[in-house]
Write the C-alpha cells for this entry.
Amino acid sequence: MATILAVDDSASMRQMVSFTLKSAGYNVVEAVDGVDALAKAKTMKANIVITDVNMPNMDGIALIAELRKLPDYKFIPILMLTTESGTSKKQEGKSAGATGWIVKPFNPDQLLSTVKRVAG
C-alpha cells in the first residue's frame, strides 16, 4: 500500500488524517511543518504528500516548491488540505506544483476518494 506523508502543524488534524488513511490501509508518516516534512522526504519516498498551507517555519506552498526540486518528488501527487479556499491561494498552490486541493473540515470519504484517484 502507498506511503503518505501527512503534514500539518495541528496535532489533532494530523491524527484525524492519519487515522482516516491508516484505516484504509495506507502507511502514514507525519510531519509537524514544512521543514520537518522536507527533512523526512529526503530520507524516504512517499507516494503521496498531503499538506496544510499555513504552518510555522515553512508553509505548504514553499514545501511544495522545495519538494518539486527533489527527483523523487518531481511527479508524485501533492494535495493541499487547508482552510484556505480563495482563488488566488489555490493558484499559488497550483503554480508551486500542487496536484489538488481539499478544504477543511474534510470528509473522510472525500479524502480517501481523492487519495485513491491521485494514487492511480
